[in-house]
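queue> pop job 88
queue> type: inverse folding (structure -> sequence)
queue> payload:
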């Protein structure tokens, strides 16, 4: 699990993206949900954006972003597929 953070340009795209590792805190709740936390320093003013991504982890994968194994929303669903925070 990672948060990807950075400045936001005029088109609301994250620029200069920096990945921040997130680790689970405790076990799952009664509904199976988990809380994750990680270090994040907000060290400057201005527009700031973030998104959270889940990367697959398996001993047979070359790395967490091996193509063909990561699902992304289609162009048609775009921002409607998740929550956009501004």
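queue> result:
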């Amino acid at each position: 699990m990672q948060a990807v953070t950075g400045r936001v340009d005029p088109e609301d795209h994250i620029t200069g993206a920096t990945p921040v590792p997130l680790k689970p805190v405790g076990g799952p709740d009664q509904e199976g949900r988990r809380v994750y936390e990680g270090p994040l320093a907000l060290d400057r003013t201005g527009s700031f954006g973030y998104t959270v991504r889940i990367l697959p982890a398996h001993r047979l994968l070359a790395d967490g972003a091996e193509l063909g194994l990561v699902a992304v929303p289609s162009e048609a669903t775009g921002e409607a597929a998740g929550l956009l925070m501004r």
